[in-house]
Amino acid sequence: MEIVVIGMAVLIGDIKLKLGVFYMKLRKIFLFTLFFFFTLNSIFAAKIYEDRIKGYSGASGANFVGTNKDYSFDTLCEFRENSLREENNFGGIRKKLTEEEFFLVESALGEYSVKKGEIYEVIVVLSRKANKVLYVEVEIANAKKGGYYYVALESIRG
Fold first, then answer.
1. How many CB atoms lie within 10 A of CB 149?
2. Taking the model in full, what pTM does it have?
3. Alpha helices in 1-158, H assignment, sequence order
4. Closest CA to 76 of 85, 87, 65
5. Pairwise CA distance, residues 132 & 153, whole Å
6. Percent of the chain at pLDDT above 90?
7. What is the arithmetic mean of pLDDT over 102-120?
8. Which residues of 82-118 are buried (b: 16+ CB within 10 A; e: fewer)?
9. Closest CA to 57 of 99, 110, 92, 118
10. Closest by alpha carbon to 151, among 47, 74, 65?
11. Quick check: 109 and 30 in contact, CB under 8 A?
């Protein structure tokens, strides 16, 4: 009787382990599909912005991903980084944006009435550096003051 109980416990543990691995793969596929959709949508929704006085120009587009209640900001950033690495397009994480890049991110986010806790993905392409694309993951911290957290991931297109 004890052998049967131990055998059942091992079998149940093995099933739970396989379900956990399956769940993680399913989650990864879901996140990849989500990012793929938002990337395509962002590229098609991108607009050209320019500030002639400062000489800034480029294209950017923002997409609403969800709220921080729906998604973990860190998980989304990590997933974007991993997808760029898998495509051999990862150019690095940017600690700071240039004034021109910041202008393009702000311009794209200006198309939305943002609220605290919302997460957006902004794609930025500078006119003079068309071979580089910035994926800026943004979480709104204070919509009234224009405050947000961001992680900028640079992609180098071939």
1. 12
2. 0.68
3. 2-45, 73-86, 99-109
4. 65
5. 10
6. 6
7. 89
8. ebbeeeebbeeebeebeebbbbbbbbbbeeeebeeeb
9. 99
10. 74
11. no
Query: pLDDT tens digits for 13-49?
Result: 455 545 455 555 555 555 555 455 555 554 546 788 8
151's CB contacts (< 8 A; 6+ apart) are: 77, 93, 136, 137
Nearest to 100 by CA among 145, 158, 37, 152: 152
SS3 10: helix
Which amino acid does the sequence have at 80? R
79, 120 contact by CB (below 8 A) = no
In the three-class reduction of DSSP (H, G, I as helix; E, B as strand; rest coil), residue 131 is classed as coil
For the chain, first and last CA: distance in Å?
64
